[in-house]
TrEMBL record:
Origin organism lineage: Bacteria, Pseudomonadati, Pseudomonadota, Gammaproteobacteria, Thiotrichales
Highest rank taxon of the organism: Bacteria
Domain AFP-like positions: 281-334
EC number: 2.5.1.101
UniProt name for this protein: N,N'-diacetyllegionaminic acid synthase
Source organism per UniProt: Hydrogenovibrio crunogenus
Amino acid sequence: MSVFIIAEAGVNHNGDLQSALRLIDAAVEAGANAVKFQTFNTQALVSKSVKQADYQAQNTGKQKSQYELLKSLELSEQDHRVIIQHCLNSDIEFMSTAFDDESIRLLHQLGMARWKIPSGELLSVPYLRKIAAYNQPTILSTGMGSLEEVQFSVNTLLKAGLEASNLTVLHANTAYPTPYEDVNLNAMQTLEKVLNLPVGLSDHSLGIEVPIAAVAMGAQMIEKHFTLDKSWPGPDHKASLNPSELKTMVTAIRHVEQALGHGEKTVSASESMNIAVARKRIVAARPIPKNTVFSEENITLKRSDSGVFATEWDQVIGQKSTRDYQEDEGIELD
């Protein structure tokens, strides 16, 4: 199964519909399977007194409340309808993370077919139950969570009606950007082993190396933030890929999944033609008269276009030559 790549537009549209549409176009050009936004009602999501996260304040360069920040990044219902239609026209899957009950209802009403549970809702029991009740393909991000907390979340989803076949768990670290020493890709494999579920990576590190490595380690899904311009004001632009980097990442992932192959050790068609010229054969080390016993003194191994291959060495030693051989001439067995 091909790796499912989610181009995370998030709030990198800065609240502007035209920028959101351009983000969709960039995701399509990069070859992503889906483009994902964030759907929220700021009033329902956050109290007005809550401060920005440190990374948000640093990346925006402004000290304001989370309420002020998020309010400027909201997309209206009509915006969603335009975005969804543009995704349909562009043959890319629309996704969005819902952050409150009203947004869950809106996305369900708009026909979204795949749910993404963000790391911040890992332990939000009522939220998890609402998503699970739809029993549609669901992705669970696990940033800021211990293994026990991830197990709690998974069990909550399954008890609430989500079938295990519809659940994918993403290893994640919610630092923006994530230091390489904190990525801990091996934890993704731990999740796979313990949960016995498909796993992937929601990556917030800089660059494209980590998602590519995750695919080589068995990730079935990759989520990565991207933006039209890293210099734009906003909380996530600096930790995002630009369109060119996103395309390079997608291409590299496709190459890696091709290179992983079927797992059997066989001779491929592309290399089989080299056997005749790369493997050594048994040839005469010097002129050998007829009826001479072949020995380590008069035969040797060389690349040659005639003679038996080196696997027959023990069978040739001790036999008599049935004809004369010139030096470098391939030795044949009767």
